[in-house]
Each structure stands twice: as C-alpha cells, then as structure tokens.
Amino acid sequence: MANVHDSVLDEGVSRSRLARVYAEALLAVAAKTNQRDEIGDQLDDVIRNVFATKPEVEAFLNNPTISKRQKEPLLREAFAGCAEPIRNLLGVLNQNNRLGLVRSLAAVYRDLRDQHAGRLRVTVKSAVPLSDEQVNQLKATLEKSLNKSPVIVPVVEPELIGGLIVQIGDRVIDTSVRTRIQTLRAQLMERGTSYVLQ
Questions:
Q1: What string of pLDDT tens digits covers the 198 residues of the chain?
Q2: Same domain, 12 and 105
C-alpha cells in the first residue's frame, strides 16, 4: 500500500516539477517578447472562462484515450485568441501528452510573474464583499509590513459572519467572528469540564 501512495506522491511531485519547467520556459519567451503580463492574463482567462465554465473542454484535453490529432481542432478553437507563445506551448504539451498540466502551469506562471514583479498574492476571505476603500487600506497596510506589492484575491464566505481571514503564502491571520465563536465555545467547554471535575 505504501508503494501505491509513494507512486501517487511521486507523480504529483513530478507533475508539479513539469508544470514549473514549462511555466519557466513560457515566462522566458514572454520576457523576450515583452508579453509577460499579457500571457499571464490570457492563461488566467482560459482557466476562468473556458475551463471553469466548460469543464468538458478540460476533461477532453486531459483524456489520454483521445488522440493528439483529435485534440488539435479543439485546441485551436479554445485558444484562438491567445498569444502565439501560448498556442506554441499547447502544441508542445499536446505532442508530449501533457495537456493535463495546463491548469497547474497557469498557476505556476502566475506565481513566477508575481515574484519577478515583486508582487505577493494575498487571499482575503470576508463574510461580505470588501469595498474598494477597504481593499486599498488593506493593500497599504500589507505593503508596509511585507515590503512587497500585495495582489489582493478576495473570497466571499458568508459563514465567517464578520472579520477577515488573510492568507499570505503559508501564514494565516484569522480575525473572523466564526473563529472567535469557536474559540470561545472551546474555552467554555473546557472550563465547564473543569468545574464538573472539581
């Protein structure tokens, strides 16, 4: 059983490495043609507007039982509006049976582009959408503490009730009302138990 787990883990690691190799190659080409941001935006658009709205497109491209030749027309159609470096990369991925890397490649490319530009992605979860003023205040505060330009990725989660959860890489700052209530509940349960035991 451990061998199966290890092979799945190895496959995940190798997929991650492959995605990084392709993303770095694409970034190098994008830098030469001064299209770094344009290509990143187009990749994000494909994930958001094609893969997210038409999951059958991604499933078709990832299906190993469908031949490369059968995938070519859909690739041309789905990515027709993309820059030439993206279309060329997709052709290479198709030839190497690696179209399943597109989503992770796009994420790695975004991270590499942000690093190059001195930006840092910050996921901000709130119970209600943040106003432009709140986002700008948060950006200013984070910029001072991080010494980097934060890119705020807002996520609305009504179950937070109030407050924010700010995630910067592996760091999480949780000021949500939901967490405060859970902490208070745990403290009350613990105190209640200690009173009973006395």
A1: 444 444 444 555 588 899 999 999 999 999 998 999 999 999 999 898 888 898 998 999 999 899 999 999 988 887 888 899 999 999 999 999 999 999 999 999 998 998 888 888 899 999 999 999 999 999 999 999 888 889 899 999 999 888 899 998 888 989 888 888 888 888 888 776 554 444
A2: yes
User: For residue 194, with 0-12 CB atoms within 10 Å meaning exposed, 13-18 middle and 19 or more buried, which class applies?
Assistant: exposed
Which residues, in sequence order, are CB contacts of 45 under 8 Å at separation 6+? none
Domain termination residue (choose one: 114, 135, 156) = 114
The label of the residue with tokens 């006395």 reads: 198
Residues in contact with 168: Cβ distance below 8 Å, sequence separation at least 6, in sequence order: 120, 122, 142, 146, 150
